[in-house]
Amino acid sequence: MNRRQPVAWTLTIAGLVGLLLAAAPPPELGRSGLVASDHRLASEAGAEILAAGGNAVDAAVATALAAGVVQPAGSGLGGGGFAVVVTPEGEGSVLDFREVAPAAATRDMFVEAEAEDASRKGGLAVAVPAEGPGLAELHRRYGRLGLQRVTRPAWKLAHRGFAVGPHLARSFSRAGDHAGPLASALFGLSEAPRQGQEVKRANLALTLQRFAATGGEDLRSGMGAKEIVAAVVEAGGILAAEDLAEIAPVDREPLVGSYRGWTVITMPPPSSGGAVILQALGVLEGFELSAYPHNSAELLHLYAETWQHAFADRARHMGDPDRVSVPLDQMLAPERIAEIQRQILPSRTFDPDHYGTAIDPGTDAGTQHISVLDGEGLSVALTTTINTSFGSGVVGGRSGVLLNNEMDDFVARPGVPNAYGLVGSEANAVAPGAKPLSSMSPTVLISPDATQRIVVGASGGPFIITSTLQVITGIIDHGLDPSEAVAAPRVHHQWAPGLLFVDVGLTEDTRASLRARGHALKELDMFSSVQVIHQLGPGEMLGASDPRKGGWPAGVLAD
Ligand code: DON
Fold first, then answer.
1. What's the farthest any 2 CA atoms get from each other in the chain?
2. What is the per-residue pLDDT across 418-467, written as a single tens digit (0 to 9) for each?
3. Is 384 tagged catalytic?
4. What is the Cα–Cα distance from 136 to 127, expressed in whole angstroms?
5. How far is the C-alpha of 18 from the C-alpha of 181, rounded, in Å?
6. Which residue's CA is the nearest one to ligand 1's atom 2?
7. Which residues, listed in sequence order, are joined to residue 369 by a DSSP beta bridge?
8. Ligand 1, closest atom to CA 462?
9. Which of 464, 465, 494, 546 maximizes ligand 1 atoms within 8 Å of its Cβ, making it the mutation to test the pocket?
10. Own/partner long-range contacts of 485-488 (Cβ < 8 Å, ≥24 apart)
11. Which is the closest atom of ligand 1 to the Cα of 272?
């Protein structure tokens, strides 16, 4: 057997958005696996597990747990997520461990709430956290090493400490009045930590130990669960012990489609991500994308028009599939796709007022995406979230677990966009036990001859969907390598508000050309973070973490 060596290197130039194209192509890897996450220490935790003989699921779980320690603004056991797992034979499955609304939730709870931001901060914002039971279940099904071994890298980081990274330091600097209380609850510090400062998470280290020893049960019915319920109730929430005890990850059939002969295995509802991506890819397949220069105005306009239709369908139809019927057949029908294709004019967009209200979306915040491919070809696309930066701001007492504010992913107040500017319909209303509609889009693609794979996904609210799609088309249609594909400037349109969001790297000519088509442009300095691995053939994998968030992949080389 090959000896496995963990390695880590810069596959993308981290830093300034705008200087986005990597200067050098990334190195090739051996057969033994690669992890791309949005934090170097988290990727290294996964690589350590691959090197110890773990498979891609072991590594993905280890990476997610470690990310929850070092990147608490955007991940952790207080959230939930989705995993798309594809076997070497190409068999796909989905584990849905999205949070649900507590049993005591009511449709109008946020209309009636005194505080206007009750769905975003404080106890009422907390949906039932499901990440602990979800990761434990993912591991139980597919893992090869013991859960204690898989949890160890995260435990080490929490127990021994780690240096605060740039993204976390930035997140604290944007947290306003919440920064001090969060620093105290998470790290026992009196003020927000600086970048590079060593911090420990002693309470969370103990929770991780209990998590591993109980197979995740601690966060459903053990001490961790008790601490979480008490803290949420204290913060004005309605979470009950029964809500946690009843959390059960759900198996779902992956949504499977195709794009230029590639098989696309992606996330079904309660995410909107897979459906919007498949509809958009279906529309784009009708155009010869490779004939347009990459990131030319013609191409970006085509994306924007495609997405406006797809996001309008999302807002109209989509919600928790266990409560409402989501007409995927209708959204993905060839007739619907052809209808959209016919409506796209190369010369103009339609009046923004026709589509919706002008609300700014948030920037990348409370989510992380991990892509893992192991030497045997097992592929995992895992996206987890606590929603916006630092979630609800409520820490579950001595569990050290920072809790989500996923209730804001519902249509909390009818007609009022959520933190990401997304609107929706009754299909996504608050209801006891319902899952809020998500944009998370973990996706695996298999090439027509089955020799290549792309494992991809992102953080960034609705930007997840459009960024994931641009990286897919960048690789498939424009032949970009993963570093170039994730680093390239991106655009985003989500129908409402009627704005085309553009990355700083887009040229003035391109902007002028988009404006000439009627697009109202809005500049963002940061909006989504894509992690991708491209397997080019046996023994050859390239991966990239998004430079916007400072992520860093780590791999294992066979020698
Ligand atoms: O599930 C969703 O769509 C949102 N909770 C995701 C939020 C997100 O990606 C924040 N950004 N990094």
1. 63
2. 888 888 888 999 999 999 999 999 999 999 999 999 999 999 999 999 99
3. no
4. 19
5. 34
6. 438
7. 383
8. 3
9. 464
10. 485/530, 485/532, 485/544, 486/12, 486/530, 486/531, 486/532, 486/544, 486/545, 486/546, 486/547, 487/12, 487/13, 487/20, 487/21, 487/22, 487/544, 487/546, 487/547, 488/20, 488/21, 488/294, 488/295
11. 3
For the chain, what's the residue count? Answer: 559
C-alpha gyration radius of the chain: 21
Q: Which ligand 1 atom is at minimum distance from the Cα of 74?
A: 12
Q: What are phi and psi of 553, to 5 degrees?
A: -80, 165
Residue 181 and residue 208 in contact, taking contact as beta carbons nearer than 8 Å: no
The pLDDT assigned to 62 comes to: 98
Task: Read off the tokens for 363.
Answer: 């920037």
User: Domains in the chain, ordered, with CATH?
Assistant: 1-101+249-388+403-559 (3.60.20.40)
| CB of residue 405 inside a 6 A radius of ligand 1 | no
From the list 367, 388, 468, 510, the catalytic residue is: 367
Distance CA 417, CA 532 (A): 30
Four-CA torsion 160, 163, 169, 175, nearest 10 degrees: 10
Sheet holding 255-259, edge to edge: 255-259, 262-266, 443-446, 453-459, 529-537, 540-545
pLDDT digits (tens, 9 = 90+) for 173-202: 999 999 999 999 999 999 999 999 999 999
Q: What angle do CA 531, 537, 543 make, to 5 degrees?
A: 20
Ligand 1 center from residue 274 Cα (angstroms): 14
CB of 456 within 8 A of CB of 381? yes
